[in-house]
Amino acid sequence: MIYPRFLLGCLCIAVLACNNIGPKQTADSSAVPPAEDTISQMPGGGPRTSVSTDDQLFETAFGSFKTAVEQNSEDQLKGTIHFPLQTSKGELSDADFHSKYKDVFTADVRNLVPKLGEEYIKEGQNADYAELRKLTDKDSKLFEVNAAKTVFVFGKVQGTYKVIGYYSK
Fold this sequence. Notes:
The protein is of the alpha+beta class. The protein has helices at 2-18, 54-70, 74-79, 97-104, 107-112, 130-133; strands at residues 81-87, 90-92, 121-123, 142-147, 150-157, 160-168. Strand 5 and strand 6 (160-168) form a beta hairpin. The longest helix is centred in the first third of the chain and has 17 residues, at 2-18. The N and C termini lie far apart (113 Å).
């Protein structure tokens, strides 16, 4: 008879031991906190590169320019242009921009510019741009955007790409 009581006692101890809420576990303060994965941490990810390349700065400026042209917003366009704007007929000042706006941004230009893709953009290394280069930052590239009979030249002025030249073909 001692044997069944012994088994019953062991069983009770085992059940009570399983339900025991012992001391709470604490986080190990020496553990490394979880970190967000980045491309550079992945195999073949390579080093991280700067996000502010000239091409990306130009693409951002050109996107703003296209939006302003599409919306036919003279005020927004003024923000994308460096004045005085160099033209084949001389300089166009900020004050004269309003009177010449419809001559520069014709209906054809307003229809075409928002649709332009990168095939209409080339890096301007033309010797004719020597005067325009003087207006830009030392490290600036020049980008030429061909909109049919109209060409807009972008250059970096004080860290931001803007239209610095315009001419009709």
